[in-house]
């Protein structure tokens, strides 16, 4: 929702000088109360990679308090790897995994549930695999046709979600490093995360105003973004969110979950 309680709508991707700032929350990182006032969308862990019924309820309440759009954050039920390990699965299994977790949060958020964004290994698998993306998109559309799908910019999921009739917000990451081909640098590699709040803020401005990001090899790559992600379990997500908000304001970018 927006701060006036209306459901946000998304403009077509482009350099509109308006951007959403989302954060993965309800994961037990301990910063949710400080981060929530600084973002416009919250993607809430649904009890698989992290969270439980109590944390979901608390995070939803916090999002409502601050007028932040509420989203489901389904992932692999693999807490030992925080859902970041990819686990092979078929299309039907992927669709069932995602819809079961959305349903858990929907029971708490009700009509205020606004979007869905996959987590970790599941996010990357469905971003790449058109068959998984198609199955997940069709399953979401069948039960929650109003949900906005937050999807990696230019991914198979963004394409297949649109084909299923769902609204899509293309996502870019300001606290993760990009490879020259536009993919994220694997977390196993040195330099895969952007831990300096000032650097993250500069990347946010570049994405919002110029649609580009500096890759790890020094090249600039084009990335269409409607929403920018900050990881709630990063080194200092509160400082990062604060720096990003200040930098975007200075650049004349309106931070909002919709218009």
CATH evolutionary superfamily of the domain at 18-176 and 225-233 = Glycoside hydrolase/deacetylase
Structural class comes to alpha/beta
Low-confidence stretches: 1-15
Counting DSSP E segments of at least 2 residues, the number of strands comes to: 10
Total of helices: 8
Oligomer: single chain
Which word captures the global form?
Answer: globular
Helix percent band = 25-40%
The biggest sheet amounts to: 7 strands, parallel, barrel
- Write down the CATH class of the domain at 18-176 and 225-233: Alpha Beta
Write the layout of secondary structure elements.
Elements: E1 18-25, H1 32-35, E2 41-45, H2 53-65, E3 69-73, H3 91-109, E4 113-116, H4 120-128, H5 130-143, E5 148-152, H6 156-163, E6 167-173, H7 197-210, E7 212-214, E8 220-222, E9 227-231, H8 237-250, E10 254-255
Parallel strand pairs: 1-2, 1-9, 1-10, 2-3, 3-4, 4-5, 5-6, 6-9
Antiparallel strand pairs: 7-8
Helix pairs in contact: 2-3, 3-5, 4-5, 5-6, 7-8
Structure characterization notes:
With 259 residues, the chain is α/β, with parallel strands linked by helices. The chain has a domain at 18-176 and 225-233: Glycoside hydrolase/deacetylase (TIM Barrel, Alpha-Beta Barrel). Helices cover 37% and strands 18% of the residues. The protein has a seven-stranded parallel barrel, surrounded by six helices. It has a two-stranded antiparallel ribbon with strand order 7-8. The longest helix is centred in the middle third of the chain and has 19 residues, at 91-109.
């Amino acid at each position: 929702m927006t701060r006036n309680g209306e459901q946000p709508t998304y403009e077509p991707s482009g350099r509109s000088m308006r951007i959403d700032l989302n954060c993965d929350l309800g994961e037990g990182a301990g910063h949710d109360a400080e981060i929530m006032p600084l973002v416009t969308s919250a993607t809430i862990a649904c009890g698989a990679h992290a969270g439980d019924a109590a944390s979901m309820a608390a995070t939803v309440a916090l999002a409502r308090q601050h007028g932040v759009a509420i989203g489901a954050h389904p992932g692999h039920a693999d807490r030992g790897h925080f859902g970041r390990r990819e686990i092979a699965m078929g299309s039907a299994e992927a669709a069932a995994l995602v819809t079961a977790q959305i349903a858990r949060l929907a029971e708490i958020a009700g009509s205020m549930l606004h979007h869905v964004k996959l987590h970790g290994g599941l996010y990357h698998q469905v971003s790449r695999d058109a068959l998984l993306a198609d199955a997940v998109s069709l399953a979401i559309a069948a039960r929650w046709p109003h949900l906005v799908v937050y999807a990696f910019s230019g991914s198979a999921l963004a394409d297949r979600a649109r084909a299923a009739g769902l609204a899509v917000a293309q996502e870019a990451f300001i606290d993760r490093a990009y490879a020259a081909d536009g993919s994220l640098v694997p977390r196993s590699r040195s330099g895969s995360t952007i831990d300096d709040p000032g650097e993250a803020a500069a990347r946010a401005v570049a994405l919002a105003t110029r649609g580009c990001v500096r890759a790890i090899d020094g090249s600039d790559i084009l990335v269409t973004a409607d929403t920018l992600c900050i990881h709630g379990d990063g080194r200092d997500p509160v400082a990062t969110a604060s720096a990003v908000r200040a930098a975007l304001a200075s650049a004349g970018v309106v931070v909002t979950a919709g218009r």
